[in-house]
Give the backbone structure.
Amino acid sequence: MNKLHVGLFTECYRPIQNGIVASIDALASSLRAQGDDVVCVTPSMPGYQEVQEHVVRIPSLPLPTRTAYRLTIPLLPNETDARLLERLSIVHTLSAFVTGWMGARLARRLHVPHVFTYHTQLEEYAHYFPFESRLTRNAAASLTRSHCNAADVVIVPTRAMEERLRQLGVRPRIEVVPSGIDVGLFAGGRRRDDLRRRLGVTASDKMVLAVGRLGREKNLELTLGAFARLDFPEARLVLIGDGPQREMLERTAVRLGIAGRTTFAGEFSRDSLPDVYASADVLAFTSRSETQGLVLVEALAAGLAVVAVDTPQTRDVLGDEGTVVGSDAAAIAAAIAAALQRSLTAGRHVAAASIASRFDAGKVGGRIRAIYEGLADSRRIAAAG
């Protein structure tokens, strides 16, 4: 097995915490465990002290909106980083923005395979840009299509996203490979009374959990609206995460009369999330913008019942393991109530084994590495011929 030198080009990386960053770290760890070299190329983050080796930071500017994401300035890295990038045998882009296009250009110049993972439905983030929404969505779709068509292989996490890209006019080969997690880490979470108390959940309460960035694209107003209709007096809603909509969501909780039963807990480190999932009684997931929804996988691995808004990609992830309902507050509330009632009599839902067979980070990394190897072999054969 030939050693690979892989460059992961992403607009989104530490210190940001989200599903994309988690999936990138899981892939990098898996590839390194298989003996490969991996370098992550990503925008600089002012004030952040780099704690990892093999991360190349590209100069960046803040976006003209309230977000932690940065706009990469396409400048050459320093001489040491440039030598590191010249060794790459695989370029894997995880963003269709500037950093991704830097990777695509480098792949062409080095004559090495270019793989792109479609992590984000960019058009669902049009509200972050100060332009007319329809034009922004069209531009985002065009950017996605052109970047996909510049790649040798496009990886999508769900079959629904493969269909979405074909509708956009994407031509190259598409492989469906989910984003992986450390299933054992999340299956090993402990239900902790002290953590529940810290989150405002008493011993007799039932904990309804929502995990994710507090941004408009996550549709958390629907979560709050559903909880306001929940006929389960001893339930408490806990939101893990932070983001630009936090103040608005806090005001919404007050308006709906549920502020006293809602905890905005802020961000938790990834290592602490397994205990959070294990300490909850049901996950409410109302986002419609995901390409997969890593939160769903984490919750199921932890044995947590899931109630989610029905989308094709969510059905792809959950299969028979969760409850999907329409995008209606009353229907979501009824499904949450039913899940809480089941937890009173049947105990915790256990799905870690089936989740591991599909989403284990090591297995996912092995599948992606096989794609790299196939492309590299094809290049070698073509060059020899």
Summary: The longest helix spans residues 361-384. Residues 183-357 form a domain with the Rossmann fold fold (CATH 3.40.50.2000). Residues 87 and 153 are 21 Å apart (CA to CA). The chain has two domains: 5-180+361-384, 183-357.
